[in-house]
Amino acid sequence: MWGIIISIIMAIIIGIIGDAIVGHNMPGGVIGSMIAGFVGAWVGAWLFGNWGPVIGDFRVIPAILGTAIFVFLLGLISRLFSRTA
User: Fold this and answer.
1) Residue 1: how many CA atoms within 13 Å on its side-chain side?
2) Alpha-carbon distance 80 to 67, whole Å?
3) Tell me: the pLDDT tens digits for 24-61?
């Protein structure tokens, strides 16, 4: 039970850090940050491998880098669609 709670909290923290690095305003608030943290952890592990400190089953450094990339791409896509609409 505690593992799930720690994973959710780490996803939120990683999502907020990744959003702060990129400078976008992540839509969805805490839930959006949590989703970005989970997706970013997956992207970071896929792109950068599994290295660095582990907290709550997250490799922290690749997860933050992956989240920053994910939020950046999400911001580009949202700007693209807002210009065409």
Assistant:
1) 0
2) 20
3) 777 777 888 888 889 989 999 999 988 888 887 888 89
SS (H, E, C) the chain: CHHHHHHHHHHHHHHHHHHHHHCCCCCCHHHHHHHHHHHHHHHHHHHHCCCCCEECCEEHHHHHHHHHHHHHHHHHHHHHHHHHC
Cβ–Cβ under 8 Å, residues 7 and 58: yes
Query: How sure is the predictor about 65, in pLDDT bands with cuts at 50, 70 and 90?
Result: very high
Residue type at position 56: G
- Is the pLDDT assigned to residue 22 strictly greater than 80? yes
CA-based nearest residue to 72, from 15, 22, 30: 22
| pLDDT (0 to 100) of residue 39 | 92
